[in-house]
Write a structure and sequence with these properties.
284 residues; 5-stranded mixed β-sheet; D-Maltodextrin-Binding Protein, domain 2; 35% helix; 12 strands; 2 domains; alpha/beta
Length: 284
Amino acid sequence: MWRPRTTVATALGIGALLTVAALQRPTITIKGSDTMVILCQRWTELYPHRERVRFQVTGGGSGTGVAALLNGTTDICASSRPLRPAEIEQLRRKYGSRGVEVRVARDGLAVYVNAANPVSKLTIQQVQDIFTGKITNWKQVGGPDARIILYSRENNSGTYEFFKEHVLQGQDFSPTAQHMPGTAALVNAIAKDRWGIGYGGAAYAKNVKEVAIAEAPGKPYLLPTFENVVSGRYPISRFLYFYLRERPTGELKAFIDWVLSDDGQRVVSEVGYFPIRRPQGAKR
């Protein structure tokens, strides 16, 4: 029986066609929050229709993502803070749209210390006083006689802005604070520094200790768990956002719809953040 022969030329031709088909897939770019990079990467890895679209995920901070949204170089801005009124106005002037906000996850902003640090609870006021330089020694908050070493995010970070606004009440960070380029770098520094303290997304709390936070003296000290964050009891809770220039269509809409689905929200829990709502079958 005669069978068609696959020649080298034929194989090369098929390969070229497959390459062209791959190149014709639309690319969705996601840029912004370093807090959200690990979550966005996981979403794109598990998206069930990857054969239809390519993804490009980069960090750099929420401010970097907002700038890319404004100048038209990203499809999605991943942000750990809401857009400012001035940024919304820039979108309106440039694109005739106030933008589209999509809440994609929740986060309990954690305060981290070294695993060997005996201090395990602080009030919001104590955290504020530590990061503004009013409290400089661990013995002032029930710990040993040791100088507090401050680690912060850089000022283009949405986490930095949220912490400054909601914890420091707009006050400046102590000039002794060391500003780290990302949450992973911050956590790594605290894991090696017995007297270090910093803050960041709950999903990054690896090899460090999360401090229980009380809204005020006499209030309960709480960790950023799902129940505490979703109920609003944990005092440093926030949403994580996708921002777009206009209402999504096509593959972009399909991806965002999946992110908000039960399957997409299970990924949020797996990464270490908190879903907008508890997906069916999720563990408590």
